[in-house]
Specification:
The chain has six helices and seven strands. By secondary structure, the chain is of the alpha+beta class. The radius of gyration is 18 Å and the shape is elongated.
């Protein structure tokens, strides 16, 4: 997803993506490829007409952005999160993560083989776009607690064998304060 189409972390699209993302995470155990599975959203029964219009408009916006595919049959709306949607979901979840206590950082270290260059570049882009700071090309850090979010993403993409996420002490501030 290009920079101009990125989802704002606290927008209606982000909220909807997080709702749908819960379904994806629940189905990780049940399916090897959950993004291809449709999730039935039968909101018409429980929502007022205006609220339904708002949600449908948000879903249409998400479809135009390539985050979801939607299909309506009878009275049920079926929505599938696309690959771009999963990437944006991960980015939004990282941006919404809790700040770690002072002196703690989350470090991501990876060694992804050359034949998986596309995955490596996508991971770098995700880290860069999520506010991580690069120490080296394959070592990044953040002041946010993103261990669970990245763990889910790594399982989903099959990258867990090449990527490690650590919680570490950042003694830089303490050293600078002592000088």
């Amino acid at each position: 997803m290009n920079k101009t189409n990125r989802v704002k972390p606290w927008s209606a699209v982000a909220e909807m993506l997080l709702d749908l993302g819960g379904y994806v995470e629940d189905l990780l155990v049940l399916s090897a490829n959950p993004r291809l599975r449709y999730y039935g959203l039968d909101w018409r029964e429980e929502l007022a007409k205006e609220e339904w219009r708002k949600r449908n408009a948000t879903l249409s916006r998400m479809q135009r952005q390539g985050l979801v595919k939607k299909q309506m049959n009878s009275r049920q709306l079926k929505v599938a999160v696309t690959k771009n949607g999963l990437e944006e979901l991960a980015r939004v979840k990282v941006l919404r993560s809790e700040l770690l206590p002072p002196g703690k950082v989350c470090i991501v270290v990876f060694d992804i083989p050359e034949q998986s260059r596309t995955l490596r570049n996508k991971l770098r882009n995700l880290l860069r776009n999520s506010g991580f700071i690069s120490l080296q090309r394959s070592v990044w850090y953040s002041p946010f607690d993103v261990r669970d979010t990245l763990g889910t993403l790594l399982k989903l993409t099959g990258m867990q064998k090449w990527v490690k996420v650590y919680l570490a002490e950042d003694e830089t501030q303490q050293i600078l304060a002592e000088r």
